[in-house]
Amino acid sequence: MTVRCDRTPAWQALQQHADKVGRGFDLRQAFAADAGRFASFSQEAPHVFADLSKNLIDQRTQELLLDLAQQCGLQARRDAMFAGEHINSTEDRAVMHTLLRAQGAVPPGSRSGVAGELAKVHETLDAMLEYAETIRADHTITDVVNIGIGGSDLGPQMVVLALAEFVAPGKRFHFVSNVDGHELAGVLKGLAPEHTLFLVASKTFTTAETMANARSARRWFEQSGGKDVARHFAALTTNVAAAREFGIETTFGFWDWVGGRYSLWSAIGLPIALAIGSDGFRKLLAGAHAMDEHFRTAPLAKNLPVRLGLLDVWYRNFLGFTSRCIAPYHSALRRLPAYLQQLEMESNGKRVDLQGAALPFGTSPVLWGEPGTNGQHAYFQMLHQGTDVVPLEFLAVRDADHDLSGHHPALLANALAQAQALMQGRADAGGHRDFPGNRPSTFFVLERLTPESLGAFIAMYEHRVFTSGALWGLNSFDQWGVELGKVLAKDLEPRLSSGDVTGLDASTAGLLARLKQG
Ligand SMILES: O=P(O)(O)OC[C@H]1O[C@](O)(CO)[C@@H](O)[C@@H]1O
């Protein structure tokens, strides 16, 4: 049983600590006073190194945050997740995406039944990877179109882009998510049905956008002379019956205990397996599993996802920061911010606790960002000199996968320089040219961007979001907030042609009249 963070003695102690030192904390003085600050505030985890030393925390902050984690029962909730308890209480489901990357045995203390689930995981994984290898060897298939949205799009898309270096030539990958027909039409324009494989990816197989795109893709396939729907369409879903009813015979399943935003490790990862091969996909899983084991077993004080989640609570609830910026210094990670937005904001963008009581404190920050160095020439101005403090996260990769001379040192120097500038500031230039400094950042280092390191980094983020969500007393695994808009859109769609505005508010009615279809 977890205790909500604001009902613990540590919460009160952190409030006093924030009043006393938190808001007056100065990073420059902290480094001057403690030669060991980098070592004591950095952390090695599988495939990921993190420097937390440029954050507005001291040893006491860390101790109090760890007390908070203990008093909230973070370990018990973590163990309940790994054991397969139904911690997604509003949907009465287990949360076992970690089982998708379990390498053999189930975690100790697992509920009965989990071993059986793991056997199903491996059976499906083997079948999916065998299929992936067959398609990889089939040179008549030159284009793979993934049709899915949210977790059925962002994860596979982000990973396929990120691991471009590992993608065998000969196949192009396309991702269609939006119900906006411009997207699908643009992709279809360059395709031939006999050379195309469509993957319809949807956990529920009911999502309106995905179903509309899948129907249009099949119509296009048939109208352009495509033969053999069975060979050219596959479905990735927990709702195999609905996929069959749609007319798709090749299906790869997964289970209700995999949340959409945690599903790239399941059959939803088929585009990744097609792109980087079965070995590559297994390495991605292995990297994530290594981070799972770190999260599950490392003491809280040396547990990277825990330290990050606690830092998020400190910034959000005690220093009042409402957003966090992520800057991956690697152009292949350009979809990482969008992916992390869903992971964090759909998980922790909640205003009631597990019992449904309104929370008296803030939860998910706004997460945003762009790859560096591009962001530097756009919004970094605000990060350096704006009135709001926005903690920034740098992700740098030591080794490049190209041999263009000079580029990589320039890229890395920029990442280092920005973190340095944010912290140091500048007080000698006068007026508009001065920088306040003391702006916090976290700096992640991967040795190389590989399936293993990317898998570990994503898993680290999943567990960090788990940590802050657990402390806030949230159910991080439902998403009721997406439902109302879906219902209203269903009501409005026919009105766009009928023009019926009965019962609508004046603004919606006025806009509908402007958008009415001729
Ligand atoms: O995979 P599905 O069921 O099509 O859902 C897609 C996405 O839609 C959501 O349910 C939100 O509407 C996400 O949580 C999910 O990732």
Q: Your description of this structure?
A:
By secondary structure, the protein is α/β, with parallel strands linked by helices. The protein has 3 domains: 5-72 and 298-478, Glucose-6-phosphate isomerase like protein, domain 1 (Rossmann fold, 3-Layer(aba) Sandwich), CATH 3.40.50.10490; 110-276, Glucose-6-phosphate isomerase like protein, domain 1 (Rossmann fold, 3-Layer(aba) Sandwich); 482-515, no CATH class. It is 47% helix and 11% strand. The protein contains 19 helices and 11 strands. It has helices spanning 9-22, 27-33, 37-40, 59-72, 74-83, 114-137, 154-162, 181-189, 208-223, 229-232, 240-246, 270-297, 304-318, 336-348, 380-385, 407-424, 451-472, 483-498, 506-515, and strands spanning 42-45, 48-51, 143-147, 172-176, 196-201, 233-237, 250-253, 323-329, 366-369, 392-397, 441-446. The strands form 2 sheets. The protein has a 6-stranded mixed beta sheet, sandwiched between helices. The protein has a 5-stranded parallel beta sheet with strand order 4-3-5-6-7, with helices on both faces. Helix 7 (154-162) links the parallel strand 3 (143-147) and strand 4 (172-176). Helix 1 packs antiparallel against helix 4, helix 13 crosses helix 17 (451-472) and helix 14 (336-348) runs parallel beside helix 17. The longest helix is centred in the middle third of the chain and has 28 residues, at 270-297. The termini are far apart. The model has no long low-confidence stretch (mean pLDDT 97). Pfam families: PGI. GO terms for molecular function: glucose-6-phosphate isomerase activity. It is an enzyme of class 5 (isomerase).
